[in-house]
Design brief:
Elements: H1 12-24, E1 40-43, E2 46-50, H2 63-76, H3 91-104, E3 108-112, H4 115-126, E4 132-136, H5 141-150, E5 153-157, H6 162-171, E6 179-184, H7 196-206, E7 209-213, H8 228-231, E8 240-244, E9 254-258, H9 260-269, H10 271-275, H11 281-296, H12 299-317, E10 334-340, H13 342-354, E11 357-358, E12 361-362, E13 372-377, H14 384-400
Helix pairs in contact: 2-11, 3-11, 4-5, 6-7
The structure holds pyridoxal-5'-phosphate (PLP).
């Protein structure tokens, strides 16, 4: 038997980096949900009012979705058994894609395992190293990763700065290669809406492909939650529409909508589609049921917006910085409470939790240095009582910690 000499841990540098985070006060541990994802639920054994989930419409626990998942599991089992291109395309996957395409009024749709995979897989498939990506500074990490994987040149413009986006496009006017102009429909950390009409104008003027990632707009904005393209009536001016099935839709997945040929091309070239197993049938069935709910229960979206208006008004009255100079930057159910300092933000979040409010602190690198925040997200299922209670706690803890007067 070979004797082993003591080997020093080659990963010890990770421990050093974690210790740095601990010294800075931005190290976190995962909070564990003991029951269902809901407006009031139990994390780490403590019942809290939940302001942190993306469960906008309360669909994670909707009886019809739950039943659809169970029925599909009974009928078709728990897994698809293969990637889509080998043997893992089940009829229910196709039904979901056809349903989304009809809902969005586009030729075709392809579903990926997640919104992350949809963005990263699509951007890296449609562009190559001779091409250009013109991208908003605050676009989602999955877009940035897709852009890097494509090896195209990445030209970043300041957040929502149309003039700068145009400068970027003009600077490559005489170069060969394709251009992709890309924005989030709703920005996930600030809750503001991307300037789609102006960006579509630019895309047309400079012959760029226009792509919108509507993860936080899916089920939230537009008629019955059709997203920002519908909200701005930009139909037919956006070539690639990405949405998620993981937030308002309540389950898991991402999708790309566009022409039949775009989707057919992604079947052949998008790497998460080619190299990663498709959804269990229960997930597809759940999502089909969710789109029925979007169409048949519009009162959920109305309630979401009613809660959102109330929440923003009350937070502003308490004196919290909810972003923006004179008017709040956020126009959606995402409302950031900007604290600034990373450590103070994490301490504030922990105190809120002790008092029964779950508001997750978000610091660098998820948001820029000095812009740490508690991100709150309204849902349709929070009651007036719960919101009043949460406001009480925010006020009390905010005063105690010197965040508001
Ligand atoms: C959450 C999010 C994604 C990723 O979606 P998942 O389905 O959770 O992988 C992509 N883009 C944006 C803007 C997001 O907020």
């Amino acid at each position: 038997m070979a004797t082993t000499t003591a080997r020093s841990n080659p990963l010890s540098y990770l421990t050093d980096q974690l210790n740095d985070l601990k010294a800075k006060g931005t190290h976190f541990r995962l909070r564990i949900l003991d029951d269902e994802q809901a407006a009031v639920c139990t994390f780490d054994g403590k019942k809290v009012i939940n302001l942190a989930s993306n469960n906008y419409l309360g669909l994670t626990t909707h009886p019809k979705l739950r039943e659809a998942a169970l029925e599909a599991t009974r009928k078709y089992g728990v897994g698809s058994g293969a990637v889509r291109t080998i043997a893992g395309t089940m009829r229910i996957h196709m039904e979901l894609e056809e349903k989304i395409a009809r809902f969005k009024n586009v030729e075709a749709c392809v579903v990926f395992q997640s919104g992350f995979a949809a963005n990263a897989g699509t951007v890296s498939a449609v562009l190559g190293k001779e091409d250009f990506i013109i991208s908003d500074q605050l676009n989602h990490a999955s877009i940035i990763d897709g852009a890097r994987l494509s090896r195209a040149k990445i030209l970043v413009f300041e957040h929502k700065n149309i003039a700068q986006a145009e400068e970027r496009l003009a600077s490559i006017k005489d170069q060969p290669g394709k251009r992709l102009l890309i924005t989030d429909g709703v920005f996930s950390m600030d809750g503001d809406i991307g300037p789609l009409p102006a960006l579509c104008d630019l895309a047309e003027k400079y012959g760029a492909i226009m792509m919108v990632d509507d993860a936080h707009a899916s089920g939230v904005l537009g008629r019955n939650g059709r997203g920002t393209i519908d909200h701005f009536k930009m139909h037919s001016r956006v070539d690639v529409q990405v949405g998620t099935l993981s937030k308002a839709i309540g389950a898991l997945g991402g999708y790309v909508c566009g022409t039949r040929d775009l989707i057919d091309f992604l079947y052949h070239r998008a790497r998460p589609f080619l190299f990663s197993t498709s959804h269990p049938p229960s997930v597809a069935a759940t999502c089909i049921a969710a789109f029925d709910v979007l169409e048949n229960e519009p009162e959920r979206i109305e309630k979401l917006w009613e809660n959102t208006r109330f929440w923003k008004r009350e937070l502003g009255l308490l004196g919290f910085d909810i972003g923006g100079q004179t008017t709040p930057a956020s126009q959606t159910p995402i409302t950031p409470i900007i604290i600034g300092d990373g450590k103070l933000t994490m301490d504030f979040s922990r105190e809120l939790f002790k008092e029964g409010v779950m508001g997750t602190g978000i610091a660098f690198p998820t948001v820029p240095e000095g812009k740490a925040r508690i991100r709150t997200i309204m849902t349709a299922t929070h009651t007036q009582d719960e919101l009043q209670q949460a406001l009480e706690v925010l006020k009390r803890v905010g005063k105690k910690m010197g965040i508001v007067n």
